[in-house]
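Bug #77: duplicate submission created two jobs. Keeping one. Sequence:
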Amino acid sequence: MKAQVIRQHGSIDDIRFEADWPDPVAGPGEVVLRTERCTLNYHDLFTLRGMPGIRVPMPLIIGIDVAGTIASIGDGVIGWEVGDRVVVDPVDREQGRLLGEMMDGGLAQLTKVAAHQLIRLDDRVSFDAAASLAVAYGTAYRMMMTRGRIRPGDKVLILGASGGVGTCCVQLAKMAGAHVIAAASTEEKLVRLRELGAADTVNYQTQDWVRELRDRYGKPRFTGPSGGLDVVVNFTGGDTWVPSLRVLNRGGRVLTCGATAGYDPKEDLRIIWTFELEIVGSNGWTRMELLELLGLVAEGRLTPVVDRVVPLAEAPTALRLLESRQVFGKIAIAPQH
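Kept job's structure:
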C-alpha cells in the first residue's frame, strides 16, 4: 500500500512517501479499513516533532481521524462485514493508545484498528464529515456543551475560530442560542465565520481586540453593572491568555482544551480572583459525545467545515498549510486518490 511514514521525530521534511509499504493484517479482534478520508490535526504536528514524556514507536504512520470501509476482518470480530461504512474512535480505550501516535494511523491506503473502535456510519454522513469529527469536533463538543455549559444569551468569544475546533465551536454556540463573537486573522476568514453563524467578529491581527471588545460590550466591573463577555474560548494560550481574562464580565469563564501558541503563558491572578472568574479545562471526548455529534450531522444540524481534500502524496503540503494557519476548518487526505 501507499503510506506517509516517519522514522524519526523532526520536521515535515522528514515525512517519507512510501509507495510499497506492507499492508496491515487484521489480527484477533481487529479490522483493516480501506481509508477513504483522514483529516489532519495539530496533534499530528506535535507527534511529528516529538512531545516530552511521550515515546512514540517508530517507524510510524501518523493521522488520527479516519473514516472508511471495512476491507478485512480478524478472528473473533462479530457484527461487522466487509464493505461496512465506519468512522473510527481514535482512542483505543481498552489499550490506552491513540491512533496515529502509539499505533499506525490513517495517512495510508489501509488502516488497522481494534473492532471496538468502530462506529457505524449513517449513509447521510459523508466520509469527509465523519473524518472531521473525533479530534476537533469531539474536543469542541465536550468543551462547549459538557464542560462549558454554554447557555442561551451567553456572549461567547471564540479565539482561533477559523480552525477545526473553532469552526465547530462557532456552530455549537450558535446552536445553543449564544451570541457568538469570532476572532480570526484575516477579513476573508471573518466573512466566512459570519456565514457560519457568528453574530460579531474581530480581527486580532489588525485590531486591539481587547479594547475593541470593551468598546462594544462594556468594561468589566466587580460592583454595579458589569460589561464584558460571559465566555472566552481560548485553546491557543500564549500571549492571548491574560487578554482573554480582561474581556470577561463578573463570574465569566474561560474554556480551554489546548495550548497551540504556548502552554506556560504569563498569568495575572488578580483578574481571576477580583472578578471571580472560572477556568474550565476540557480534555478529549467520550464515545457518547462522538455519537451525539454524528447524530447532529446526520440530522443536518451541524456541518463539519472541510477546507479542501488532497491526495495522500500531497499530505506534507497539507500539513504545511495547517502549520501556517492557511486552512479554514479541516483539511482532508484522500489516500485512494
